[in-house]
Amino acid sequence: GAVVSQHPSRVICKSGTSVKIECRSLDFQATTMFWYRQFPKQSLMLMATSNEGSKATYEQGVEKDKFLINHASLTLSTLTVTSAHPEDSSFYICSAREGAGGQETQYFGPGTRLLVL
Amino acid sequence: AQSVAQPEDQVNVAEGNPLTVKCTYSVSGNPYLFWYVQYPNRGLQFLLKYITGDNLVKGSYGFEAEFNKSQTSFHLKKPSALVSDSALYFCAVRELGNNDMRFGAGTRLTVKP
Q1: B97 touches chain A (CB under 8 A)
Q2: In chain A, which residue's Cα lies nearest the Cα of B89?
Q3: A62 partner at 20 to 30 Å CA-CA among A103, B14, B77, B101?
Q4: CA pair distance A77, A54, nearest whole angstrom
Q5: Does A111 sit within 8 Å of B43, measured CB to CB?
């Protein structure tokens, strides 16, 4: 299947700093990428849909100024957690959709574990 | 609105026995159904999907799933479980024409030697 990479895999930062997470589709182009957040022992929560060349669409309750998304190209989307606080500590997973015509499959990155001290 | 239910938090089976992980869905239109597996501290790995066609879908690592429209179910199955199959399994649904995917709560599968 298609490969999606994320970088970094793990990051520890101080409260108040910003953290950028990169998501890349390695062997396909993705006009749409997704950012999820997963709390321990819970399912994935969709945060936002990232569209290449346009603004991201955020789910209700997700602060767009807090979680900045930039879909710079057909193979790269970035999530920046601004002024991070301990409650932002979580596992962040990106996903990229491959294919077209309504039969697309979403492939997921390996995730980024963020710990804010 | 679309939703997915995985009624079992945990499934335990002995190695070599068949396994079933249950999933039911709710959509107003035609469903696209997916199964993913997640190992500790990793992202989700795609196992299989149902879009259209045969109700029995075969996927990676010997897994298969059967789409049952009348029961709105898409249970994941494997004839003979391996210890290495132990992981967290997520069922997901996306409705035709809808952009986002909804995930079930996940089922933790434990295969004991």
Answers
A1: yes
A2: A43
A3: A103
A4: 12
A5: yes
Write out the E strands in B9-79.
10-14, 19-21, 24-26, 31-38, 44-50, 56-58, 64-68, 73-78
Nearest CB partner across the interface for B46, out of A42, A103, A107: A107
Alpha-carbon span B111 to B107, nearest angstrom: 13
Asked if B41's CB is within 8 angstroms of A109's CB, the reply is: no
- Distance in angstroms (rounded) separating the CA atoms of residues B74 and B80: 19
Q: What is the pLDDT of residues B47-103, one digit of tens each?
A: 999 988 899 999 999 999 999 999 999 999 999 999 999 999 999 998 877 777 889
Give the span between the Cα atoms of A5 and A11, in whole angstroms: 15
Interchain CB contact of B44 with A (< 8 Å) = yes
Is B46:B34 a contact under the CB 8 Å cutoff? Answer: yes
Q: Across all residues in chain A, what is the average pLDDT?
A: 91
Residue A43: pLDDT band with limits 50, 70, 90: confident
Tens-place pLDDT, residues A12-40: 999 999 999 999 999 888 888 999 999 88
pLDDT band per the 50, 70, 90 thresholds, residue A1: low
| Closest-CA distance of chain B to residue A41, Å | 9
